Amino acid sequence: MSVDIELRKAAAYISAGRNEAAHTLLSQYLKDFPDSDLAWLLLSYVVDDPRKQLASVSRALKLNPHNKQAQERISQLSEKTKEQSSERPYLNGEIPMDWLPPYTPSQPDSKERAYQHLSIEERLAFVTLEADSNRGYMPRNYPAESFYNGVAFDRDEARKVGKDRPIRLKHLLIGGASLIVLIVVVLVTMKFLSGSFISKADAQATARVETAIALATKEAKGRLPPTWTPTITPTFTNTPSPSTTPTPTASHTPELPNPTVSAQIEILQQQVSDLRKLSILENVNTYIIMRSNVRSLLEGYFTSIESSLDQIEDNKIILVALGLIDQKYDLLTNVLNSLVDSVGGFYLHETNQIFVIGYRFTAVEKFIYAHEFDHALIDQNFDLKGLNVYPHCDGDEDRCKAIQALVEGDATLLMTHWLAQIATSDEYDEILNYHPPNQVLPEQDPPPFAMRNSQFPYSEGLAFVDVLYARDGWSSVNQAFSNLPLNTEQILHPEKYLAGEEPINVPSVSLEGILDTKWRLVNENTLGEWMTYMVLGYCVNPLAQVGESEAVLASEGWGGDHYQVYAHEETGDTALVVHWKWDSSKDASQFTSVMRNYLERRFSNGNIAGLYGECWQGEDQVSCLYSVDRQNLWIVAPTMDILESLESQYPSFH
Hints:
This protein has 654 residues and is of the alpha+beta class. It contains 26 helices and ten strands. It starts with a helix and ends in a 7-residue tail after the last helix.
């Protein structure tokens, strides 16, 4: 018996604050596997109605009376229901079942009966990453509505969710705070599985997900690496090494740590090396810097990179054209924030330097350093500089984002191992009480896209690396650096990476001869599944955002795409063309329906006649959506004449 990886993904959604996606996944899973007590227990964390929460846990206990976590959960929910309602809460056996799927439990065999009597710790020792031989993992054809009558995520509900999301995201998905919550969940799990006692966990931050993750996502007791003992390796002195790359310039010149801290850093480096099972190949210079000095240092580094500021301006044009940010947004600060890991540090690949934001070198700084030194180890052993991803992407942007998720997921998983196995009890408590600011460099009213997109490498990256790690430990993760993920689809659906599924080729169509010489090509590249999801669910206009389940449903059938953005040098007008291909006709139909919904909202139902597609007018632009076979074409231009000229180069959509 194994915990299915679909349950792992549901738990990862919960830990990332994506309850709607978890709800959709668990609903379909329970239709197929109604006897899963773990799935019912997970479901209790994503339904809103306290009585339905209680009913879900009761179903878990009916399936497996020995589930201790479910016993504790039902006790908590019963008390909560008593406090919130004057009515008597439902008791086991009295729960109305009209909102639940039909239940016909199968008779467990002797092996299954033995499994149900195991403790959660013992059950998780059997966790594997192998999918059930009878079925695949993802993608699933999510139903348009949940099977829960009365709480269906229909179009009206999606509008409500879309309007509320920016407010929720400000608390759930922005910057370092959410990453710490995610890490805390992993740490709680690892301490739980290794039998350790957690004295001061932040209950408010983790209560709704720690049991779920403990049940469905993290390593079993037998799979955790052994308690660390030092390996004797050559000692490196922490002295600067020459570099041909310009060293960051700033108003504040960082200083190397004192000998005492340097000795602690050498010990920590060896701990990380042993945990990650990678050799230290060269010295890495470490600096501890004040938060007030971060911006000047990052700006000095960033401006030393050729054409970096010009690239920011082009990226801003692209993101505005896609509807993800507005013209006033300070994209430079967002880019500088992206250089800093949310926990409070950064590793510069070009200069081989680690910067930890802090005052001393105590528990929190060690925790941050474990993450950053993992980056250095990966760089030394797998040559991150040669991937054309850092400091900026050179090539396929979707591929770059996938590799970033692999790198950050690796470092995030490593730091949880360090905290679970090496940190002292006092250090553990100090780190769990660490509350970093939401962003290292505060932004004023960042758009939903900026907040959610910044978390992708960490939350989705961690879920991806966890799938690999559970197969054969770090050896499986190492193999990924020799066989890199091709796109964000493979990050979001690890089974597609493991199967070696390649994207569908979408050839570039030359448009330069159609536009006059005052138009320049800003960029042509790939959106990928993740950015398609962002366009639909996290656009800058909250009234246009579709609901979470709709955005997931529409984007997960992604097969391939190609986009082009042009800008007029005098007027500043932009023209956008995106050509998608989908895995199936059903996937194409699902996307078309949701994309139409998005465009109707974005352009305030300003429907106008189009020659071959559905068209809208608003925001001083014209937008048309075309559909044929398993393909879609989306064009946005300042006038219908320009739009139709661009569309004429795609005869298959006529």
